[in-house]
Amino acid sequence: MPVLIIAQNTKPFTIPEVQAWKGGKGVFVAENGLDDSRITFHKRMSQRRSPEEYSISISRKGVGVSSPSDAGLRLARTTLAQLLEQSDTLPCGTIDDWPRYPLRGFMLDCGRKFIPMYVLRDIVDMMAYYKMNTLHLHLNDNAFPQYFNNDWTSTPAAFRLECDTYPGLAATDGYYTKKEFVELQEYADAKGVEIIPEIDVPAHSLAFTHYRPDLGSNEFGMDHLNLRNPDVYPFLDALFAEYLGGDNPVFRGRRVNIGTDEYSNRDSTIVEEFRRFTDHYIRLVESYGKQAVLWGSLTHAAGVTPVKAEGVLMNCWYNGYADPQTMKEAGYQLVSIPDGYVYIVPAAGYYYDYLNCASQYDNWTPAQIGNQRFDEGDPAIEGGMFAVWNDHAGNGISCADILHRVYPAMQTLAAKTWTADHVTFPYAVFDSLSHTVGKDVRSQVLGIGWPYTVTLEIDAVEEEPSTWLYDDNGTCFWLADPIKGLVGFSRDGYLYTFNYRLTPGRHTLSIQGTNEMTRLIVDGRVLDTLLRRWRYYTPDGKTKMAEVPTFLFPIGGKEGAHRSKILRITHDNSLGD
């Protein structure tokens, strides 16, 4: 009689992958997903490596999970959720898992582009699913003046928080109320994601000098606060106090970023003023019981004025501004966020439009900061982040465009900040299997996705301007736009129209979209294609900005009042023939 040989189970796929796997034989059949009563969670394991460590033991009869902390149990639950998303069976074996870096994060520029609160919550959900635990929100910044006639007064700038201390400081194109910002932090905390809010001073501060022009620097530019002006300190002290003071402060987490990035170092006197300023706001934040975080700039601003280092977390983004080895020796804890590796600036033509995920997966870990390589697990390196900077205000980039760039980067950086140089799946395998993990969160974040074709069978009549068909959080498809009455769409404050007016009769309208263009096809004929285009700001063409007219059709959005009859609507993730 033949002998049935059951092979030992190979390592299952998760993002990030688990650190240690010992394969058993056979499978556990989950009868009710994670709610199966045979899956048990216990806070029993003694801590060996990290409070986030956990172990999972899977047998044919049941699954046992243990961790020294609630955070570890939550992460173990995420691992099981990812496995059960791929199959209703779990391979028998033992998982021992822990992060190689405690800080695993993402930095988002909300200052130059307002990111609605529902998008931030979607990002928190995505981060939690991939075991990323730190969301750094850059809450104020400004555009570049060369795109606005080199006029600081007309250059857009924004501070994104409700402010009672300085009424009118909050940006008119979008800000977060203190209540909803607190609620975001509580929502994130429940999912194991820490929010680090940043008020960026004394550079990148045009929002403050628009409000108080007397605080701006004519010497270095109005995006610089004038550090020679003693009124700067009481203004900012009161601003920070609004969010850090009281029994229930607005900034709820343990860390606050004070900025200190890219200030002029033209002469030694301003360097010493900058160092004094930096030290003051480190200590101010600490006086409220928070850990101070700042952008590394103290090589660029080398001087003699002491700046506190002990207990301070520094984002090391460019080694010319802050030499990582020197900063380590000074006593700073480092976050690896090197611009040449992990900066995304959508459609800008510099840094990355989309992160080079293959290269990051194969070559980068938080131990690589610019051209310096530290020992893996160096205790001076707290962890790593990637970043999205929305430098080009007015370039048409939408939240959907940003999320389309963030999603694959999030998966990749989750792998490399958790597992570091111990990844075992080749990138081609990781890339292929990454689509099997996080399908629900991907759909939540990316909607119908690009590329797509949406086809409307419509019995049309002439519509009045401002007649819309579908709207989802301000992403709107117009049967007759508000200005010219043309078919078009709007999102993120931008309105785009096709060269077509709805005419009476039965028609087939197809809208095709990619991350580069949007097209309208009527009765089988391409009528208009909106492509990425250049906007020029100087006669010589050297100052230019790419504009991106993309659109994610709001399937499932609210339907507006219209007289035309929609006979049928279909969509698929293709561009057709």
List keywords for this structure.
single chain, 577 residues, alpha/beta, Chitobiase, domain 2, TIM Barrel, Jelly Rolls, 3 domains, eight-stranded parallel beta barrel, five-stranded mixed sheet, 12 helices
Verbal overview:
- The protein is α/β, with parallel strands linked by helices.
- It folds into three domains: 20-97, Chitobiase, domain 2, CATH 3.30.379.10; 109-446, TIM Barrel (Alpha-Beta Barrel), CATH 3.20.20; 452-572, Jelly Rolls (Sandwich), CATH 2.60.120.
- The chain is 23% helix and 29% strand.
- The chain contains twelve helices and 32 strands.
- Strands 6-7-10-13-14-15-16-20 form an eight-stranded parallel β-barrel, surrounded by four helices.
- Strand 29 (533-536) and strand 30 (544-547) form a beta hairpin.
- Helix 2 runs parallel beside helix 10, helix 5 runs parallel beside helix 6 and helix 9 (357-363) runs parallel beside helix 10.
- The N and C termini lie far apart (56 Å).
Helices, strands, pairings?
Layout lengths: L19 E10 L9 E4 L11 E5 L4 E4 L3 H17 L2 E9 L5 E7 L7 H13 L4 E5 L1 E3 L14 E3 L18 H13 L3 E8 L4 H6 L4 E2 L3 E5 L6 H13 L10 E5 L8 H20 L3 E5 L17 E4 L7 H7 L2 E4 L2 H4 E2 L12 H7 L4 E2 L2 E2 L7 E8 L10 H20 L8 H7 L5 H8 L5 E9 L6 E6 L2 E6 L7 E4 L2 E4 L7 E9 L3 E6 L2 E7 L1 E4 L7 E4 L10 E2 L5 E8 L5
Parallel strand pairs: 2-4, 6-7, 6-20, 7-10, 10-13, 13-14, 14-15, 15-16, 16-20, 17-20
Antiparallel strand pairs: 1-5, 3-4, 3-5, 8-9, 11-12, 18-19, 21-26, 21-32, 22-23, 22-31, 23-24, 24-25, 26-27, 27-28, 29-30
